[in-house]
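Chapter review: from sequence to fold.
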Amino acid sequence: MAGAVPQDRLGRRNCGRAVSAADVRAALVYLTAGLLPTGYVLAAGIPLLLAWVWENASARRWPWEPSPVDRPLLLWVAVVAVSSALSAHRDLALANTALLALGPVAALAPSLRTLRERPQALGTVCAAWTAGGALAGAWVVWRYLHTGAGRGDLPELGWNAAGTVLAAASLVAAGLALHHSASAVPGGRGRLLLAWTAQLPVLAGLLATLSRGAWLGWVVGVLCFTLLAGPFTRRARWGAVASLAAVLLAASSVSGLRDRALSVLDPQRNQDRILLWKAALRMVADHSWAGVGFGAFVREYPNYRLPGDPNTTPPFAHNLPLSLAAETGLPGLAAFLVFLGALLRAGYRTAARSPDPDGMANAGAAAALAAVLVQQLVDGTLQSFHLGFAFWILAAALLSPRFSPSGTPP
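The token string follows.
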């Protein structure tokens, strides 16, 4: 055919192509996902933000990628900003609001652009996250065995936050494994084996954190995964059930783990958390409209601390909805729930409608997000800029496909 480019010349041309800004951004997105489980996400997250801003400034466009949740997200940030401006602690609250607004720009927007541009990007993000999770899990187990603290952690994250990233990594790895099982790419079986093998250090580390909230989140995430991935393959259900059974068996056979799990049912052993929640409810009652200011919970808590409460200056209420109600008022909590509902709805559509094998990776991301959110009912690990990257990257995975009216990717 006249004008056709020979394949050998085309190959040499592609090999010699200069690295573009999009290539740099994609590499930094992958590196961010890989460093996130170990606690060093900012080593790649900050360069990712700078590269993203520079890329868009050079193209003279706004550094944002449109998504179905833009309006609910803007509404939530706006309500938080108004609450912070009215706060008696506006110096702290406004700074935290700026970080809240920066999170989607630094993590959601560049990740979303990358996942939409590159067909294989989601698998690469999941692979990087799985590899980082395996390293983090092994590190947690090592610290559990050698620090004498009685539970494993990560130096930059602590116990509960380590549980957050490992619970998410386990479900991302499950989605990645099924992604490879349905893929016709050469070497898929070897990658499938590596994805399932990574579960061993990840789940061992998750148990070693002794984070009950992370355990609860992971169990709920596994159940969500079986529902979302079930339509694609029966192996999803059997694999998830087998993993759940193995973890429960391991936890029940070790006295320390069993005692930790059963402590959830003992009110006396949870008095610190109960007193914290009671004090937070009093704070909500006194500041129901505007809250005390985003991130100002720690400053106001001494005014509401109850007798016998061992908590002196807790940074949050160990319950994300309660923290948001106390800090941003009931309107702030309502705005967040509207945004979260829009995100979960989009995520369900993504996982249910994406074709194999992408649908399995999407199902893993959706289940990971569910696990993280469930943990926030008894914790507040997402209320940090670092773990915010986990939330926004998972959100990008759910929002990346663009569906046509018929429900299929255009």
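Two observations follow directly from the output. The radius of gyration is 22 Å. The first helix runs from residue 7 to 15.
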